[in-house]
Design a protein that fits this description.
single chain, 433 residues, Rossmann fold, 3 domains, six-stranded parallel beta sheet, 17 helices, globular
């Protein structure tokens, strides 16, 4: 049986217990940090050769040149033909939906002209080159390829370079097929901190990118944190999370399986259910115990729910919203009668899934919105990955001769107030006598 934590908002120690439940340190230990620093410095100095050496060492490859680590696009296209037809159709349907959704996010340049002829505005440009890290090894994540690559392409990124580790030389056709569908430009079979370093600094073969996106293990996450500033990154992602608010009217087994859907990611994943119906919470707990033995990843789910899961009883659904806003979950399901109204009260969540039929898993694969979402309460200040992450904004300022007279006077006064005389005189030179 699962020994999932049960919290009650009316208990005096509720906030203390909630804080303890949410606590998760995303920092890597000193040994990981030292290893990553060494790898980054080596790749920065020795380029291709360092990448080759680490790939042979960590992924058990036997290669001598970078050419052996690059997969030609024709191989990705061939993978699209090799996978089962049902998988190809599912990938193409998901890609179409993701592309359609993200096209709505694309921003355009704009200007306006003031009465004196001064023109102000904003110019939108795409990044020149982006790097996409895709996890490899035991797991295959074609959905991650779609979610990271498609927004970049919609934004207008000229070159998208994908890196994916292939331990023991095992290449996943589903991942390659997704890369073909998403129009990835180059693919390298490298992973770990060495792949992040190659993208961040560039090597003789791999060009430096402007931004690195995509999930990875603790070495990848640590490396992304260290190269930030040299390049942009999407985020440092923590364990996956789901929070369900339910009014007690949804099938308990549906909710139990929704909690499982995140718990099966890894032992640190977090699944929380909030309800104002104590009997329903018990029904879900019974469903968890009943369904757990049927799950392939039973042990991972069990550890996740025991260590970081919770069933929370609140006095009403308004309080459920308050608790949810404090938690700021990555995925939030509103399994209630009027989810649209409740959604208006939600201030902090990566993605909001509304209604009893909206399983979070649909968002992971094919609903359309991006599944790269803020975790560990960072939804308080950050947003899902999107087209805007691959676009930059430049301010446009064209001051007319008439506008220079009024703006110059203002700038002169403020600059002299800051004792920046050259600033003041630069503006004053343009003033008419």
């Amino acid at each position: 049986m699962i020994n999932i934590k049960q919290l009650n908002s009316s208990d005096s120690d509720f906030q203390q217990r909630l804080d303890a439940l949410l606590a998760w340190e995303s920092v890597s230990d000193e040994a990981v940090s030292d290893t990553v620093k060494e790898i980054l410095a080596d790749v920065k100095k020795n380029g291709d050769q360092a990448v080759i050496d680490y790939s042979c060492r960590f992924d058990r490859l036997d290669v001598k040149t970078m050419a052996e680590l690059e997969i030609p696009l024709s191989r990705a296209q061939a993978a699209l033909e090799l996978i089962p037809q049902a998988q190809r159709e599912a990938l193409e349907a998901a890609a179409a939906r993701v592309r359609s959704y993200h096209q709505h996010q694309k921003q355009d340049s704009w200007t306006y002209t003031e009465a004196d002829g001064t023109v102000l505005g904003q110019q939108i440009t795409a990044l020149d080159r982006a790097g996409l890290y895709v996890p490899g090894g035991k797991a295959a994540y074609p959905s991650s390829v779609l979610m990271n690559a498609i927004p970049a392409k919609v934004a207008g990124v000229k070159e998208l370079i994908m890196v994916v580790p292939t331990p023991d030389g095992v290449v996943n056709d589903l991942v390659l097929a997704a890369a073909a569908i998403a129009d990835v430009d180059r693919i390298f079979t490298i992973g770990g901190a060495q792949a992040v370093a190659a993208l961040a600094y560039g090597t003789e073969t791999i060009p430096q990118v402007d931004k690195i996106v995509g999930p990875g293990n603790i070495y990848v996450a640590t490396a992304k944190g260290m190269v930030f500033g040299t390049v942009g990154i999407d985020m440092i992602a923590g364990p996956s999370e789901i929070l369900v608010i339910c009014d007690g009217k949804t099938d308990p087994e549906w909710i139990a399986m929704d909690l499982f859907s995140q718990a099966e990611h890894d032992e640190d994943a977090q699944s929380i259910l909030i309800s104002d119906d104590a009997d329903f919470l018990q029904q879900v707990k019974d469903a968890i115990d009943r369904l757990l033995p049927t799950m392939e990843r039973q042990q991972i789910i069990s550890t996740s729910l025991n260590d970081r899961g919770a069933l929370i009883l609140v006095k009403d659904l308004d309080e459920a919203v308050e608790v949810s806003n404090f938690i700021a979950p990555e995925h939030l399901e509103l399994s209630v009668a009027d989810p649209m109204t409740m959604s208006k009260k939600i201030r902090h969540a990566g993605a909001i899934f509304m209604g009893r039929y909206t399983a979070e898993a649909l968002g992971d694969y094919c609903a359309g919105p991006n599944h790269v979402l803020p975790t560990s309460r960072t939804a308080r200040f950050s947003s899902p990955l999107g087209v805007y992450d691959f676009q930059k904004r430049s301010s446009l300022i064209q001051v007319s001769e008439q506008g220079a007279q009024s703006l110059g006077q203002i700038a002169s006064v403020l600059a002299r107030g800051e004792s920046l005389t050259a600033h003041a005189r630069s503006a004053e030179y343009r003033l008419k006598d």
